[in-house]
């Protein structure tokens, strides 16, 4: 079964991650209405290097990702997760919906996720089980 014998080596995975992070950076840059030249200047990298990152030719280091995140005014953690440097935070329908909301900024998403997680921790620590709908 040739179709099932689709083994991807480590280099293919790196290429895929580089492509994903580049696409994500380009999307965030376009959402912020910042030109490639402006972001390169804000992040302290050259135009060609940033272009290569966006096209998936180069995979940026964590330090470069941090500089790009600063230039985009988004959390570096969001870029680290996208680049595969950090594991994706725990999911579920609510966090997944928040992360998928294209109309929210990364900062707004992080605030909503923090609030949601604090409520979950509070409810778990409070009584050990899920709150009933009657509790207010």
What is this structure's SSE topology?
Elements: H1 10-31, H2 36-43, H3 47-55, H4 62-72, H5 76-83, H6 93-100, H7 106-127
Helix pairs in contact: 1-3, 2-3, 2-4, 4-5, 6-7
Plain-language structure description:
By secondary structure, this protein is mostly helical. The protein starts with 9 loop residues before the first helix and ends in a 9-residue tail after the last helix. Mean pLDDT is 78; it is low at 1-15. 65% of the residues lie in helices and 0% in strands. It has two domains: 10-83, lambda repressor-like DNA-binding domains (434 Repressor (Amino-terminal Domain), Orthogonal Bundle), CATH 1.10.260.40; 93-127. It has seven helices and no strands.
CATH 2nd-level architecture of the largest domain: Orthogonal Bundle
Count of individual beta strands: 0
Structural class: mainly alpha
The overall pLDDT, averaged over residues, is 78
**What gross morphology would you assign?**
elongated
Task: Predict the CATH topology of the largest domain.
Answer: 434 Repressor (Amino-terminal Domain)
Largest sheet: none
Stretches where pLDDT falls below 50 for ≥5 residues?
Answer: 1-15
Q: Kindly report how far apart the N and C termini lie.
A: 57 Å
CATH homologous superfamily identity of the largest domain: lambda repressor-like DNA-binding domains
Pfam families: HTH_3
Protein name: Transcriptional regulator
GO molecular function, one term: DNA-binding transcription factor activity
Domain HTH cro/C1-type: 25-79
């Amino acid at each position: 079964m040739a179709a099932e014998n689709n083994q991807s080596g480590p280099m293919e995975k790196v290429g895929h991650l580089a492509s994903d992070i580049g696409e994500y950076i380009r999307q965030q840059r376009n959402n912020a209405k910042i030109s490639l030249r402006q972001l390169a200047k804000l992040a302290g990298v050259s135009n060609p290097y940033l272009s290569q990152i966006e096209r998936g030719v180069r995979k940026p280091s964590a330090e470069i990702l941090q500089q790009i995140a600063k230039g985009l005014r988004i959390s570096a953690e969001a870029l680290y997760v996208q680049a595969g440097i950090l594991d994706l935070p725990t999911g579920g329908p609510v966090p997944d919906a928040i992360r998928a909301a294209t109309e929210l900024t990364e900062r707004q998403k992080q605030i909503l996720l923090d609030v949601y997680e604090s409520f979950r921790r509070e409810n778990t620590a409070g009584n050990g089980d899920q709150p009933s709908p009657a509790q207010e």
